[in-house]
Each structure stands twice: as C-alpha cells, then as structure tokens.
Design goal:
This protein is α/β, with parallel strands linked by helices. Helix content is 45%, strand content 23%. It is built from eleven helices and nine strands.
C-alpha cells in the first residue's frame, strides 16, 4: 500500500545535519509517510546508519542538488511529496496540518499544494555541535501565493511545501542545469497552472549558516544567485520574443521592476527616518522640543 507522503532528503557528507533531519521526520505526529534519502555521492556508511528506516539511494556521481531531488522524487510512491533538506527541520504538527488541509480541501478547483509559514534559524557549526544564534519569522506576512508576487522573488523554502506528486508528470521535475534557484523556477511553473494554499502557522524551520563550510547556498553564493536570477528571467523573456506572445516572461520582468522600486523606496524611507531620528534627538537635547510643543499648545488653546 502506498504511503500518503513521500519525504525526499538530499544529503552529502553531512551526518550531523542528517541526524537532526532524521529526528525531524521521525518526530512527526502524522505517520503515514515514506522517507527517501538521496546520498549525493557521499560516504555511504554514515547515511545507512542514520537513515536505517529510509529508502536510501546512493548516487555514484554528484550532478547537482536538483538532480538529487529528482532522483528521490522519481522513486516516490506517495500521493503527496515534500523536499526535506538535510539541514532543515519541522515542528511535529507539520505533516498532520498539511496533509489534513489538502485532503479536507480536495474539492477546491486548481489546488495543487500547500505551504506553512516558516521560521528562519540562524546557527553555526562548531565541530560536532550546532549552536543556534537567533530564530525569527521568515514569511509570516504571506497570506497567499500569487503568481505576480512569486515572479518578483521566491516566497517560501522547500521545507514548507507539500504538493501532489501527480503534478510532476504535467509540469516536469526540477531543472538539473540550475545549481541555485531551481526551487524558484519550479515554483513559477507550478503556480502558472495550480494554486498553493497557505497555512498561517510557522511549522517549518529554514536553517541558515552565514559563514563557514556549512554556509547555505542562498547566503554563501550570492553572485551565483544574481547570475541565475537574471538568466531565468531572460530565458522566459527570450521565449516570448521568439513566439511574440506575452506570458510568464513579461510577468517576471514587470515584477522584478516593482521589486527594485520597492528596494529603492525602502532605502529612501530608511534615510528619512535616520534624518528624523537625528532631528528629534537634536530638538530634545537642545530644549527646543519642549519650547515648540509649548508654542503649539498656546496656539491651539490660547488663554482667555
């Protein structure tokens, strides 16, 4: 009998993280799942020991993280699938909430998947220990996944996204030629045809290491991210130029323009508030603030 959910974890020579991922998976309140671990050409023995309860795929040669994802997804048997990277974690309610939502709302037209809100966890690795430095909301402002908003930038990490496995046969798998941003490109194709619902609970943890050998690709390869961000947008626009029909390329171009404008406005707003803060401090320390408040009070309520 097929499981409800197939969990795919890609890993390579990171037993410390894989142990934590195993605890995250096995700690789920919802238990009708299978765990597929893709060892991307790393040492075999630690993976076999840590993931003894999983189906382990040992790749002889690493050809990128999206190729590793696809290797696991092609072996999946569940109705739903989710990517659980070896360095991320879930709260125990995650699968229960997501699978419950998808089943309870199966009649909703176009519903293809669901995300939960996420927490960002900033941490560092020291030897055989992981130290957490900070934990904060990552995307708790997100109340809906619209194609326009997603065209501006990626809105959620893979750890938070559960979707129907059958959709892979329609829209295709992750692009293996993209060393970064493969999840964003996949999400664009997904939302171009299906809806993604949002559960407004932070049940997925997106772990970040800013420096060192374990630094995330999203923070450790910013130049690469910028290059492939532009490449994906340009490829979509070139496709439209060849056909003469506007579509997703036009959308990602327009959304990117709004993103840049938002950043510019944000910088100007920050400059304004720094100026305002300095001005108020000057007024307060010079005694001018009290004088001006008193003058305003006399104008509003003049003495009889």
């Amino acid at each position: 009998m097929s499981p409800a959910v197939s969990i795919v974890t890609r890993t390579k020579d990171r037993p410390l993280f894989l142990k934590r991922a195993a605890e995250s998976v096995r700690g789920q309140r919802f238990t009708d799942w299978e765990w597929i671990v893709v060892n991307d050409a790393g040492a075999r023995e630690p993976v076999d020991q840590i993931a003894a309860s999983a189906r382990v795929i040992h790749r002889e040669r690493s050809t990128g993280m999206e190729a590793a994802s696809n290797a696991g997804l092609r072996e999946a048997r569940g109705e739903f699938v989710v990517i659980h990277d070896d360095d991320d974690t879930w709260y125990p309610e995650f699968l229960d909430e997501c699978v419950g939502f998808l089943r309870e709302n199966s009649a909703l037209a176009g519903l293809g998947g669901v995300i939960t809100h996420s927490e960002r966890v900033v941490e560092r690795v020291d030897g055989e220990r992981i130290f957490e430095h900070a934990r904060d909301a990552f995307n708790t402002w997100l109340d809906g996944v619209t194609l326009f908003r997603l065209a501006g930038h990626n809105l959620f990490p893979p750890i938070s996204f559960v979707y129907k496995r059958s959709i892979l046969d329609e829209i295709g798998y992750y692009r293996e030629d993209l060393p970064v941003l493969g999840d964003w490109e996949f999400n664009l194709r997904f939302v171009a045809k299906y809806e993604i619902a949002v559960i407004a609970k932070p049940l997925a943890c997106y772990h970040h290491r800013l420096t060192g050998a374990g630094a995330n690709s999203v923070v450790g390869s910013l130049d690469k991210h910028r290059y492939f961000d532009a490449r994906i947008r340009n490829e979509l626009l070139r496709g439209e130029l060849a056909t003469g029909a506007p579509g997703l390329g036009t959308l990602v171009g327009a959304a990117h323009g709004f993103e840049e404008l938002y950043k510019l406005v944000g910088k100007q707003r920050e400059t304004f508030f720094v100026y305002l803060k300095d001005k108020l401090y000057h007024l307060a320390t010079s005694g001018e603030l009290v004088t001006r408040i008193h003058e305003a009070y006399k104008r509003v309520w003049p003495r009889e």
